[in-house]
Amino acid sequence: VQLIATAHGNTLENLLSSPMLSDLVGGVQVVTLSDEEARRRGTQKTILERKHAPTFDIVIEMIEREKLAIHFDVASAVDALLRGQSPRPEMREEHPDGKISIWVASERTRIPDDGERGDERRHWNEDAQHEVVKIYAYGVSRKNILRVAQKLNISIELVPRWQDADVVLTVRSHLRKGRGDLPTAIERGKPVYALRSNTYSQLERQMRELFSPMLTPEEELAIREAEEAINIALNENRPVELSPCAAHLRRLQHEVAQKYQLISESIGDEPTRRVIIYPNDR
User: Fold this and answer.
1) How far apart are CA 247 and CA 65, in angstroms?
2) What's the N-to-C CA distance of the chain in angstroms?
3) Maximum Cα interatomic distance, the chain, rounded to a whole number of Å
4) Residue 264, φ and ψ in degrees, nearest 5
5) C-alpha span between 228 and 169 (Å, rounded)
6) What angle do CA 108, 110, 111 make, to 5 degrees?
7) In what order do the strands lie in the sheet with 240-241?
8) How far apart are CA 266 and CA 186, in angstroms?
9) Taking the CA atoms of the chain, what radius of gyration do you get in angstroms?
10) Which domains does the chain carry?
11) Which of 23, 39, 89, 243 could serve as 69's disulfide partner, Cβ 3.0–4.6 Å?
């Protein structure tokens, strides 16, 4: 007997973000490691791990009508995502002549190369960039906070008391009603930030605003160039090379391409290393 089902979501990562659907692919749990184990793994003390074996062994992402991404080992793919890594599904695409191309996705389709993965990102406390930011969450999903922190490459620790936190995250309804210790935290001058609702998208938006630095003119120019290149790639159906730039600027350009679900890669050697963006039907 083979069980087949469909689920609403564009990617495997979408399923992990959904409280209703994540159990289908193994679920997510928050695990606190000992100091020794955290050092051995080279991770934070609080991490995300898969809760149990996936209900389904295989997951197929329908990227486009004629293009699929197939995860033949869902458990391994979920474990990779929770470690902040990119799974490498088998890609299949049907062409107008009926032929089918099959290849294994490379990491460049989801994340930039090692020199461009956000090492330059500053933390909330800009005077101590390498310190762990301590967050007290009241009415906000701890799992989602950890997932966003991984995505944004932020070092955080979830603490059980607001007194030990650098920043407090909650939702507006709790703040308006003065729930828990929130009034005391505000009175004592603790930074408190409220989300409109306890959803992944709201949390990611708030944490980006908190932990991401303001863009410099150089960064704005790099992003604008990537957006213009994407328009050309889509309208003229051809790859577009961008101007050579530093690694942290290339990372921003890769992120813009990802937002439009386009493939990008860095080519060439320093100091002329640059990003190339490909159209959808490459």
Assistant:
1) 34
2) 38
3) 68
4) -140, 155
5) 36
6) 70
7) 240-241, 274-277, 264-267
8) 46
9) 21
10) 12-109 (no CATH), 133-211 (3.40.50.2300), 215-277 (3.30.1370.50)
11) 89
Residue 53 is inside which H or E element, if any?
none
Q: Are the C-beta atoms of 222 and 245 separated by less than 8 Å?
A: yes
CA distance 226 to 165: 38
**Full DSSP string of 107-151:** GGGTS--GGGSSTT---SSTT-TTSPEEEEESSS-HHHHHHHHHH
DSSP annotation of 212:
S
CA–CA separation, 61 and 262 (whole Å) = 16
Instruction: Please report where in the chains the tokens 């921003």 appear, as a residue.
Output: 252
- Burial class for 240, CB neighbours closer than 10 Å (0-12, 13-18, 19+): buried
**Omega within 30 of 0 (cis) for the link into 271:** yes
Q: What's the confidence (pLDDT) of residue 137?
A: 93
Tokens of 186: 């505000």
Helix (H, G, I), strand (E, B) or coil at 66: coil
With 0.90 as the threshold, say if the pTM is over it: no
Contact between 15 and 55 (Cβ < 8 Å): no
Instruction: Return averaged pLDDT per consecutive 10 residues of the chain, 282 residues in all.
Output: 76 78 86 78 76 90 86 90 81 85 60 35 38 87 85 81 91 89 88 88 83 72 89 90 90 85 88 90 59
